[in-house]
Amino acid sequence: MELYPIIIFTIFGLLSRINGQLYSIGCPPEWVLSQDICYKFVEDAKIYEEADAACWSMGARLLSTETYQEHKFVSEYLMDSKFIREGYYYTSGYYFLGRLYWEALNQYHVGQGFWIGNQEPPSEEKIYRVVYKYTDQGYMWSNITASVPASYICEIPRSAVTSLDIMDRDFDYGQGRTDNLKAERGPVIVQQPENIIVFDGVMDVEVECAAAGDPYPTYLWYRGKNFVNKSEVTSQLDNRYTITGGKFTIEGPDTIKDQSTYHCKAENKIGAVLSEQAQIMFGYLGQISNVEPEPLYASVFRGTTIDCETPSYSPRVSFQWFKNAATNIFVWPGNSNMFVSYSGGLYVSEVQPTDGPKRYFCLITLMGTDDAKLGKANTLIRSNKGILLLLSSDSSSDNDYGPILHTHVFPSPTLRGNTIRMECIAYGSHPLYYSWRREDGRPFVKGTVISARSRVLTITDAPMEADGNYICTCTRKTGAKASKIITLTMESKPYFPYPIRDMLADPGMTLRWNCKAVARPSAVYAWYKNGILIKSIPGKIEVRGNILTIMNVDRDTDEGMYQCSATNQHGTAFSTGQLKVLSFAPNFNRYPMVKFLLAPLNGNMSIPCGVEAAPKPDVQWLKNGGNMNLMPGDLNGRIGMDIRNTLILTDIQYSDGGVYTCTAANTLGDASNYTEIRVMEGIVLTQAPVPTTVQVNRTAFLYCQASYGSSYDITYGWNFNGRPIDFTLSKEYIPGRLRQLDGLFITHAQYKHAGIYECEAITTLQSVKRSASLTVEGPPGAPAGLYSDDDSITVRSVLMIWTVTQSIHHGGPITGYDIEGETNYHPGVWNVVASDIPETLAVNNAIQKGSRTDQRAATVTNLIPNTSYRFRVRAINTFGRGQEASAPSSWVKIAQTAPIIAPRNVGGGGGSVGTLTITWDILDPSEHCGPDLVYYIYWKKESDPKTWKKEIGNDDLALKHGKYVITVGTDNYYLPYIVKIGAHNSNGHGPNSTVQTVFSAEGMPNIVPVPQDIETYNCTSVIVYWTPVPDTREDVKGRVAGYRIFYYADKYGEDPYKTEPDPIKNEIKMKDVYGQTDHIKLIGLYPNTEYYSRVQVFNGAGFGPKGQWRKSETANDPLADFPTHIYVYQRDLHSVYVKWRGVGVHPGEESVQGYRLRVWEVQADIRTAKDTVVGKVNEAVVGGLQMHMVYVLRVLGYSSAGDGSLSEAVYFSITGGPSRSLNIPIDPTVSRICFSDEYHRTCSSCTLLVHHLLLALLVFIASTCHTYIL
Fold first, then answer.
1. How far apart are CA 334 and CA 472, in angstroms?
2. What is the distance between the alpha carbons of residues 728 and 749, in angstroms, rounded to a whole number?
3. Average pLDDT over residues 64-74
4. First vs last Cα of the chain: how many Å apart?
5. 3 state DSSP class of 393
């Protein structure tokens, strides 16, 4: 194992077995020694990059297994120490294109591999991470993707441990037991500025950052594309700029002057730090063309997509669709047949006859993004001119269509922390059923929601673990199904799961600092001191990527605030640490020795020295005043000293009793401390439980290891909060061993498990007890005492105040709050009304209000007048949002005002001739803002320059249904009017809606379509033609909606030109075709039969006069016989020669025109078949085929009456051999035909299950695929 070139962080101790027990002899606590390497086996599951960063934070690297001896140690240790053998353990290796590369060593693996089954994975152009996995062979190598959470193994050479002591130091080091929170600290950014989107014309925009530090920091703001090329922004630069504390405000923001990237610098006397960058972006939503879009033609009972004419925009828009301006029917998310995609398209799974002819309108709303909030601005909305959907009835509803899948992923790129949306929509016959799963079988990540009739999978606050393939499956009621893989590739702005630590260094030493960020794509690193970029200085400072080395550390030149920056295309993140140079004489203030210790006869024990000093002192141990002449790390004898200056005694004898003194000296002084050892027979707890912290739902372990004489048997007992633990009733408690030490596992720890645990070691002669606390960390508990500041209540806002106690922190500092609201109009429904309120802001608000130090305050805005609210608050800490919210506040009554919301979705049209119908969405009662709500309707002709006419909608039709009908006169049919709606209550008039164009009702059409010739299509179908009527207001009294065709079979020989046929006797049928067209295909007719048909036009008001009857005739019957004696011969490697016996023509059938040869792959559906069409022959060539693939062939004759009967199926495959018959004899009633390649196996959907022995077996072996007929 090579030494690591750069190692940081304090690591001490090394585990080795002495007389059956473990001691620290050179590796850190809880690390294991083998072959002079220290190993740490970490159960906490992480994605690969986070596992790698965790090892870096401990001065180590992920495991690189170079030798059999190392693999044997790792495998055996995992077998011995894991009582639950599941999951994976990351190493530093990755497998790509058939080769294993160790990233920690920067080299390819050489020598023996240790793969599961001794079989290397297949060579792929995809990077897989190498892991250890349990098998019946023990723990062996396997591979997984980097986004699978797994345990991991770190390693570090024992020789690299000794230089890392300073990383264990904190601000109490050498100072005794003081409160390190009172020490002077440099600034640390606790609230980063956020990207914001504003629009031209807004009053102001604010960007804010906040820092903690002592003394309290001051702030400067900078503008520039990076942290080097920047310029300071001040009120002297532009009087529109104001800086108050950490808040930067721009009055009257301007696109040209202010659109840029900004960051702040926080500074105090210790040093300075930089914030992350925030962009001020100016959003826009372009205008939609006034040109009416072309109609969209769609087939009835088939799928289609209507695209929205999206204008240019920034940064993001949302879409809504509604159809038929006369009724404004919105497409809601639960609509089973229609779906509004985030792409803007309106998907229709199966077009129904009622879906057209109608106009479909899309509403486009400008939105913010997950990474940029919208500033103060009105909502921008655009609507298109409407797309006319015209229907053709060329297809029939055979309920056997689809599913055909369409998928989308939003946004692009998909970033960690964003809300990710995957869409899966099918064209197909209803009903359609959707399901989702992950291809690798893993469960969905937290925050995954499936909605919109299972067509949408949403992941909120998406983690990196969401990366991978998702499979959407759509199934029809008939069982037909289709699946599609959606690949989700997670990317991430850099983040530091393990930030760099503060450094308290010795003067003159060489200091090595490193950082490790998780970033996709990979990050580029830089280092800053007090906000200034650090460059290498030979002999003094070396910067190598994420590693900073400072030589000959000096207090005057090197103390300050240091930041490591990690940058990729998604942004920059900082990790911050303070460098402080210490200089003091040795002392034992924090860790004095106890006055005496009991040591077990024939047992083992260790005595820490506990000295602190800077520079590092020389340490000696004395017994009864005499020097023991021990060297650090020398453990060859029964008594020795490890590299941490701890005294180790093994196989203790009575002669080992006495006074032991640790003396320490450096250039500034010396100190000593002592303890007395008394040797006794019995047991001594050498590894007692210690205070332990665990995250909620994870596993904790409390040690309880005793040292005792060889003549005793020992048992262990456990108490929790003074009561014995019943392991039968409390399954979460499991006595066991971790790293070969006895103790207690607390699995799936909950807050109720926090408390005092007592371990008791028991022999037949005595027992020894020790106790320690268990702290369970996790999302915070519920705040208390929420109430409103009555003096702050306005018609739109209120200040809420609540109390935060230390008990709700649950181990993580509170970082923010969400406030949720419930109204008297919707009791029991809680919505977030203020989210992610920073803790610093809540503290400052409470201070300004004069509240107690344990209180917090925030203003809730955008409330609706004349509404009573109750609020509750939910805390957020570094572990997430709390599961519990506070108890609700008392009701807060917001005073009345005039309405503040304009009616939405104004439209209309249709109705009786001579009327103008106007519609809108009524306001919810919670939006009335006061009593006596009515609607003011403003309208006028589009061409009328006169002032608006006003109507008051105060009847049930207006108030409950959002509809008002105005009489405009029968002469004013189908004319454009412009309308707008406003709401009014007893307090005044609210805002008006945007102006919309609405047409008055249409008149009844009075024009007749002129019939044309009728074409015989086949034996059951004819095509009726006519001359389309002019689609003008004057001719149709509106717009052509479609045509209705009446038709019947002439069974009785009556003349319709002389006498109107009886509709019941003649079974007259009708069929509608929508939109402006000149023909329709009538299907389902009788063969060889005369038919009469006629046409009438219709619009939105009704039907026009009926046209004249026109006569037609269907063709004779199609061919009943099918071709027989079909033989297939190989022609070349990609085509075959087919012969067959033709068909005869029976009386009443049409003559043969030719033959169709229909071919498809055996594992596919017949609907994928390709036809080869020939004339009246009995042989043909079929091309475009592949070798080693089983095909199905069916032949049919066709005539003017259509396709005849299909022949029986013939199976064949091209093998590459000499020309010969390729027919494969298969009876599909007793055989199942399956296709398989290296990874998949698919069986024909049109055959029955196997019930009998093989009738035929054909195995074609190629390089990548095989076909089996079973």
1. 18
2. 17
3. 93
4. 54
5. coil
Cα distance between residue 575 and residue 500, in whole Å: 6
Taking CA atoms, 308 is separated from 183, 342, 360, 362, 833, in Å, by: 61, 11, 9, 6, 32
Structure tokens at 37: 């390497």
Determine contact, residues 824/868, Cβ cutoff 8 Å: yes
- pLDDT on residue 490: 94
Segment 102-112 mean pLDDT: 90
What's the half-sphere exposure (Cβ side, CA atoms, 13 Å) at 911?
28
**Residue 612 burial (C-beta neighbours within 10 Å; 0-12, 13-18, 19+):** buried
The whole-number pLDDT of residue 1216 equals 67
Alpha-carbon span 906 to 888, nearest angstrom: 38
pLDDT at residue 1233, rounded to an integer: 53
Which one, of 679, 523, 687, 520, lies nearest residue 603 by Cα?
Answer: 679
Q: Which amino acid is present at 1146?
A: H
Residue from 829, 809, 848, 810 nearest 888 by CA: 829
Q: Give the pLDDT of residue 57.
A: 87
User: What is the C-alpha to C-alpha distance for residues 1071 and 1064, in angstroms, rounded to an integer?
Assistant: 16
Q: Helices marked H in 780-860 — which ranges? A: 839-849
For residue 357, give both structure tokens. Answer: 């002819």
pLDDT number for residue 804: 92
Q: Rounded to 5 degrees, what are φ and ψ at 653?
A: -115, 165
Whether the full predicted model's pTM is greater than 0.85, yes or no, is no
Cβ neighbours of 1256 (radius 10 Å): 12
Q: List, in order, residues 6 or more apart from 266 with CB less than 8 Å away.
A: 187, 189, 209, 211, 213, 217, 218, 219, 246, 272, 273, 275
- Residue pair 908/326 in contact (Cβ under 8 Å)? The answer is yes
| pLDDT tens-digit readout, 1184-1203 | 888 888 899 999 999 988 88
Quick one: DSSP state of residue 1221?
A: B
DSSP letter at 1051?
Answer: S
pLDDT digits (tens, 9 = 90+) for 1021-1041: 999 999 999 988 888 999 898
| Residues in the chain, overall count | 1270
> Bridge partners of 115?
141
pLDDT of residue 1266: 36
Tell me which residue of 267, 269, 184 sits closest to 219, measured CA to CA. Answer: 267
Structure tokens at 248: 């930067």
The angle at the Cα of 142, spanning 141 to 147, to the nearest 5 degrees, equals 130
Cα–Cα distance for residue pair 745/729, rounded to 1 Å: 15
* pLDDT attached to residue 1235: 46
Non-local (6+) Cβ contacts of 546 within 8 A are 514, 515, 516, 517, 525, 564, 566
DSSP 440: T
How far apart CA 300 and CA 1071 sit, in angstroms, is: 13
Q: What is the mean pLDDT of residues 1060-1077?
A: 90
Whole-number Cα distances in Å, 615 to 507, 540, 610, 623, 669: 7, 19, 15, 26, 10
- Residue 557: which residues within 8 A CB-CB, separation 6 or more? none
The pair of three-digit structure tokens given for residue 1149, joined into one six-digit string: 């059938």
Classified as helix, coil or strand, 656 is: helix
Q: What is the per-residue pLDDT across 205-260, written as a single tens digit (0 to 9) for each?
A: 889 998 888 888 999 999 988 888 888 999 888 889 998 888 899 988 888 888 89
HEC letters along 757-779: EEEEEECCCCEEEEEEEEEEECC
**Short-list 236, 275, 53, 46, CA closest to 149:** 46
Is 926 in contact with 823 (CB distance < 8 Å)? yes
List the one residue out of 254, 194, 260, 179 whose CA is nearest residue 226.
260
CA 544 – CA 537 distance, rounded (Å): 12
DSSP-derived letter for residue 469 is E
pLDDT tens figures, 1135-1168: 999 999 999 988 888 889 999 999 999 878 787 8
In the chain, the amino acid numbered 558 is D
What count of other Cβ atoms lies within 10 Å of the Cβ of residue 1147? 6
